[in-house]
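To whoever picks this up:

The nightly regression suite flagged Orc1-like AAA ATPase domain-containing protein as changed. Nothing in the input moved, so I suspect the structure step. Input below, exactly as stored in the fixture:
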Amino acid sequence: MLVTIAARDYAYENGTFFAAIDDQVAAVAEWLADPDLGDRAFTEEERRHLSPVNRREVYDFVAEHDLHELDLDDVLVLYVTGHGRRRPSGTHFLCVPDTDEERMLATAVRTSDLVAAVLDSEAEHVLVIVDSCGSGALDHELSGLVQDLSESRRRLRTLAVVTSAQFDQNPRIGEFARVLRTFRERLRTAAGIDRDLLTFDEFAAELAAAARHHGDVLTPVQVWPRPGHGSDPTPCLPNPAYRHWERLLEPAREQLAPPGAVTAGYWLDRASGRMSADDLGWYFTGRREPLTRLTGFLRDGTGVLVVTGGTGTGKSAVVSSVVMLSDPLFRDDERYVAAVESMPEAGLHDVAEGAVDVAVLARNKAAGRIAVEILAALDNRDRHSSATPTDVVSAIDELRGHLLARPGPVTVVVDGLDEAVHPTGVVVEVLGPLARLVRPDGARAVRLVVGVRSERPTPGHDSAPAALVELLRHVATAGGEAAPVVLRVDEEPGVTTDIVGYVTRLLLADGDSPYRGDPDAAARAAAVVAAHVTPSFLDARIAAAWLRDRPGIQDLDAPDWLATLADGTCGLLRDDLAVVAEHTGLSAERLLAVLRASAFALGSGLPWSDVWPAVSAAVMDIDVALLEDVWDVGAYIETIRNSRLNGYLVADVEDERIVYRPSHERLAEVLRDDPRSLLRGGDDD
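Regenerated output under the current build:
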């Protein structure tokens, strides 16, 4: 139930005041009754409103709608606004039009009476917002009043009272409406909370951040409970930014992450070669030879297959293709069935349903977590469950039991081994034991596919990822087993042809592109791109996005453009930084600092909120305490998210927050280790 009590018709006020009160009520309804919230919205039938003239009307209203007798499953948001007074005793009163300020006890409404009525009901989800002068006086009043609640009520983390100001502060009319609208906008941008409902702690934190954004408004106060005690999501606080992730994969291939989050998006991005999360196209073509070898291994092979290649050469695309196409849920998705069927030459039809049992992404994970995720996926359990082991030894012991109990070999895919925390530990503690596990009949219990980046060794330069491949070969054969099969995707004779086909499809895809409807021009441009970037599909994707963003067909003989292509990802990012800085008037160095901050993220990425700005400040050597005075980092983040620079980032979800990271580990390495190479001369601040 959404209840609003708004005292407005004071004889001494005018139409401007009346309109402002109405707008405050409207701001609350815009959020909580928004039809876009779906079944989380308060419907018209659930809304109650009162504009009282006298004190009795308020108490009669409470009684008429049984606000003090709410049931266990009722949800209530009560918004109270109008003139308020704090009396010498510390009591806060809501003044109604008929209030005599010389007789407040008899003619005004004791605000704590309203609060007490709803807090002491049976409803387990209650939010009271008091928006009036001196409303923070409720802090003192409630400290005693809540002691009269039952212990079970006091322990609930889904009851809260918020005031628009401290006890000695007088918010200007309309202030709270401004803060509330900015709060809603923050939820869609900086807050990045990926959950359908908020907690009261999140509500208080985001209201405070919204108030700071304005600078000239008072900060709302959560007077009860104290911050830190409202940690449970509540239907009182629907998140307008939440969008339901459509499940693309079954849980065993999603690492039990939220649908569309960590792994589903990862596998799809790389399998399809799409340019953004909103793109439903499937652009990778060719790769017939590596796909044929990989699908053959999944069908008949034993032991370990290592899929490897240099940076951006499509290693993960090949692995991800079979992960996606083996998944029954994905195979039934009509959007992708049509896309895959349009490319019979890729050999994707050879992937059998269920060919991959478990798929895990190793990026920024230690051996223990990877082992636990494999176990949780096989056993269909939550990896955070108390029944799930937390250390690698216990997880491997349990895994052995599950794997040996299965009738046939279990196919496990682990991609991004080189991006794990201590990759050698993952090889020795997890992959080696799995690779050597033998069933009582002598057959291998696990068929293992490992994706790992390894540059081609050159004289005088060792490759750490290449050493990982050798270590994996060693531990997998420690018991006399056959050596792993190594599949290099950057040695195939058709790589250049595959990149030409990939870029051509991207240039001709739906949307704004000067090549749309001109396949000959697209093919010519794709051939030039492939000649300069092979074997890097990463460079090819970025170059295609750059060409699509041009106002017209690119001059293929332009020396500057050819030089940029020859410089690969670094050259393309350098040009994009300069163009965005020029068009927006923002500093290229600070745009780079924001991108660079994301490259230092652990886990799945960096949340926006207060974290991304703080890390960006550290990159620029700016005192975080002074940040708001010297740099609007939010404007830079927003510019990146809404410009061509967004193509260098990928959004993900971790711990129910949207996070951001570079779209490829090669980009992250350049941003961390060689940022000056990404600035044109004269781009520094």
